Amino acid sequence: MIDPTLRVLIPSEKIQARIRELGDQISRDYPDGNLHMICILKGACFFLTDLARAMKRDVFVDFMGISTYGKGKTSSGEVKVTKDLDISLEGADVLIVEDIVDSGVTLNYLMHLMEQRRPKSIRIAALLDKPERRLRPVHASYVGFQIPDQFVVGYGLDYAEKYRNLDDICILENTA
Ligand code: IMP
Ligand code: MG
């Protein structure tokens, strides 16, 4: 795709290779038990589908919709569940699958919400992490790539709902 405002940061091949490594690692860390992979919509849907297929074991897949009341490059800090899970988490090992940890507001909120559902354990897998931006403490056990404080799109990540279907993760330049 030719778009002068986009610059490739992580090409598709690197994303896929890293996801295969994460799939191996997570499969080793959870040799048995019920593992629920919770996709945080919409940004994490591409990551979830590739990561689930990189796993060497059975997993449950479920989806949670979240709105952070932000249309631009920053979220407002107010988190709302727009679609809840279908399957109970009680006694399960839960892996929250998220596209990116930015301020940490969303995942900090989600960790507390999921803890109330009495799972056996909860960890976070995030494809991207921007540690410089953190406002709330969040620990992601599995991180694909740490990136600098730049706004990125592609592979599920959007700007005003655009660019999610790019294969590569790109830096979006020249926008307000
Ligand atoms: P947080 O609550 O600030 O950590 O933000 C989490 C959400 O903000 C992510 O799930 C993304 O949807 C969105 N977000 C944060 N940084 C970016 C970015 O660089 N590109 C696209 N979306 C982003
Ligand atoms: Mg998101």
What does this structure look like?
By secondary structure, the protein is α/β, with parallel strands linked by helices. It has one domain (13-149): Rossmann fold (3-Layer(aba) Sandwich), CATH 3.40.50.2020. It is built from 3 helices and 9 strands, in the order βαβαβββαββββ. It has helices spanning 12-29, 45-54, 105-115, and strands at 6-10, 35-41, 60-67, 80-83, 93-101, 121-129, 142-146, 152-153, 169-172. The strands form 2 sheets. A 6-stranded mixed β-sheet has the order 4-3-2-5-6-7, with helices on both faces. Helix 3 (105-115) links the parallel strand 5 and strand 6. Helix 1 (12-29) crosses helix 2 (45-54). It is globular, with a radius of gyration of 16 Å. The model has no long low-confidence stretch (mean pLDDT 93). The structure holds inosinic acid (IMP) and magnesium ion (MG). Residues 43, 68, 75, 98-106, 151-153, 157 line the site of inosinic acid.
- Helix and strand sequence: EHEHEEEHEEEE
Uncertain runs are none
- Broad structural category: alpha/beta
End-to-end Cα distance: 22 Å
Q: CATH architecture, please?
A: 3-Layer(aba) Sandwich
Largest sheet: 6 strands, mixed
Helix fraction, binned, reads 10-25%
Proportion of beta-strand residues: 25-35%
Helix count, per DSSP? 3
Number of strands: 9
Work out the count of structural domains: 1
User: For the largest beta sheet, what order do the strands appear in spatially?
Assistant: 4-3-2-5-6-7
Radius of gyration: 16 Å
Hetero groups bound? inosinic acid, magnesium ion
CATH class: Alpha Beta
pLDDT average, as an integer? Answer: 93
User: What characteristic shape results from the CA principal axes?
Assistant: globular
CATH topology, anyone? Rossmann fold
